[in-house]
Amino acid sequence: MEGGYELSGHKQWITNGRAAGTMIVFARAEDGVTAFLVSADAAGVSWGKHARKMGVISATTDDLHLSGVFVPEEDRLGGEGRGLGVALGTLDGGRIGIAAQAVGIAEAAFRYAARYASERTTFGKPIAEHQAVAFKLADMQTKIRAARLLTYEAAWAKDRGMRVTEAGARAKLYASTVANEVADEALQVLGGQGYMKDHPVERYYRDARVTEIYEGTSEIQRLVISRGILEEIAGSLESPGGVRGSRPVVG
Length: 251
Ligand SMILES: Cc1cc2nc3c(=O)[nH]c(=O)nc-3n(C[C@H](O)[C@H](O)[C@H](O)COP(=O)(O)OP(=O)(O)OC[C@H]3O[C@@H](n4cnc5c(N)ncnc54)[C@H](O)[C@@H]3O)c2cc1C
Hints:
48% of the residues lie in helices and 21% in strands. The chain is of the alpha+beta class. Mean pLDDT is 93; it is low at 242-251.
């Protein structure tokens, strides 16, 4: 329309959206998906259902409705039809954030379980001294360190302006798997106490679950990573150097 755009539509499950003053909205314009800046108090903006979730309940998850919201041309972010690139670029970085969240949940669950295991005694000694429990702790710590290094690798590359599509996907895929495995084992280390709300481990168990889902499910991360591998192989076939050295280590 004259001097700008009129946006109408609905987007579900926006994390902490209600707290935002300004939103980036991706909408289909004549020339394809386009990014717009929209003020949260613009006429025609409203919020719908507040989602009831199994975990991460301190974050809000809400549905946004736009009904004929006017956006002036100067509030278009980038060119018309260039929005998908903006959105996918944001996801690459966002996945590193979810990997870090997953590492944090895993670390908290591990520390709690390790402390509990050193205090709870059965059959005359702390349960941490029973090999079955000690080996769980060893596996948990090892996995967390590996997940943290993958996350640092991706964040390091992002800081240097490198492509992080695959590195971010690898970090998120592995760290979210580890968060779920570690939270599950931490709960087991606490035995019946782990199932109770008196300890934070049942919350870590619930909070970890969504890291395998949002910012792209684990299946989608595998899709991204495997496409990268195929591109790498195709690139190496064209270059005389073979597969090795065809691509930077991080990427
Ligand atoms: C708590 C929470 C907060 C969220 N916050 C946000 C937010 O702030 N912003 C936002 O935009 N979204 C948000 N989401 C949405 C989230 O990103 C999606 O739920 C997620 O990407 C999965 O998409 P979907 O639910 O449509 O699943 P679907 O796409 O329906 O997938 C269902 C299943 O099929 C599999 N699948 C689908 N396609 C393929 C394929 N091509 N190959 C293999 N397997 C496939 C999936 O991996 C999954 O197991 C949030 C979701 C939750 C639960």
